[in-house]
Structure formats: C-alpha cells, structure tokens
Amino acid sequence: MPKISEMAAPAALSGLELIPGLQGAANAGMPLLALGGLPRGNVLQLRRPYAADLSATTDADPGAGKLRWNNAAPASATMLYIDNAASDATDISASWATLAVGGYVYVQGSADGSHRANWQKWQITSVTTASGYAKLGVSLQASAGVFADTDAVELTLQQPTPSPGVDRNKVNAIVVTSGNAALDCSLGDYFTLAPTANVTGWTISNVPPACSLMIDITQDTTARTIAWPTSFKWANGSPGAVSTAASAKDVLAVTTFDGGATWRATLAKAFA
Length: 272
What we know:
Order of helices and strands: EEEEEEEEEEEEEEEE
Largest sheet: 7 strands, mixed, barrel
Mean pLDDT: 88
Strand content: 35-45%
Low-confidence stretches: 21-26
Number of strands: 16
Number of domains: 2
Helix content: under 10%
Structural class: mainly beta
C-alpha cells in the first residue's frame, strides 16, 4: 500500500459529482455545484433534459429540446445554441436575461443513459438571445468522454462565483502541471509563478465578468520559456518574453472586460 506522500494528487472536481447521501437508485442525486462546492454561483437551471444535436454546426435554433455546438468536435466549440424549451417542455428562456458572463454551462449524459460518464464544463463568455433559442459564447474548462448525435443529456446553468467574502489581496501560487499553468480567479487577484520547466499552456478558471490580475514571475536558474494563451492581447500585437537571467523578476498584468474571452496583457521585466 503506498504512503500518502506517494499517492497521486486527486483530480480537480467538476462540480457534477453527486452527494452519496442524496444519491438514489436511479443515480439522481444533488450535484456538488448546487451544494456549496466551488464554484458557488447561484444555479439558474439544474439538470434540464436535452438532446445533443450534432447533425449541424450552424447558428440556428436546433429545435425543441435540443442543444447544438458550433463545431463538429464539440470539445473544440466556442458557441452553444440552446433551444428555449427543454425536452420535457420546460421553458428556460427567462434565464437568458439574468445569466452572467463568467457563469457556467454543464452538459452531462442523462442519469439513466449509458453515457452518464460523458460531461463538459463550459465558462460563458457571451449571452445572446435569438428567436426561440440562446447563443452562448463558451470556453471549455474541463470534459470527459464524447457525445454522439441525439444523446440524452442534462443541462445546468450557473452564475459566476460571487466575490464577497473572498480576500482579493491574498497572494496565491500558480500550479504548473505538465507544462500547463492553472490559475483560479476565485482565489484572488495576485499570483506568483516560479516555473521549473517551460510553460506551454494556461487554464484560467472562474473568471468574473471583469477583473485584473497581477502575476509575479521568478525565472528559474535554468531559463524557462512561457507561452501565452491566444486570448492575451498585447500592445502593438507584440507578445512579451520573460527575462532569461537566473532568478529574474518580471510582473505580468492582465485585464479582462469580457469574462476572460480576451485579456489586455502587459509584461514589466527585470525588477532589481
């Protein structure tokens, strides 16, 4: 039996995990996202039944009880098209007016289907109402499995994490795993990054509608490179490159006005 120190780190929670004490024989429990697990935004719609529409990717009403992705590979989508009516005829259109940028869309295989383990967690970058349906700009946060056309799924809509009660001035370290820097905006506004290997990607989660982040970067004794996400927009279109001197200190400042769809980025280098 391995020691605790030798065990692999647990995977990040998706929010879709069911609370065992409330889980019934039909696998119909209350998901963690609705009971206080991060993110803690208000749930507007919980596990509404829909059918996956992979027959098209066009911007149009997918039809009653259906949701559609704008990419034939759903995990690569940037837009979701969701009919106002769930497949049980529940009208969810009132949610579009209150659903905020920075909130979340969860899509999961139905509780009584063979594809229950398939799910996607999206962060919302825009909300647009159309005739009979809504168009949600989205950024994939995490997923498992692959949906097929006509799969029965459940749709959950959640507001962004509320800021009150969070110490925005607390400094948190960014964790880099297999080259990916994971930054959780719900933790605060100030972060440190001390890479021990090249940073090849970023995951920025729990982004509110607007925020500014400051990241203090300390170069390793061996020069490490940091790749920036395409959502970072730089003055004059020229991305910054971190200092290469051992233990050099740089400061990255990024600001979003659209829930993380784009970030205005500035890199100040070589602090003494």
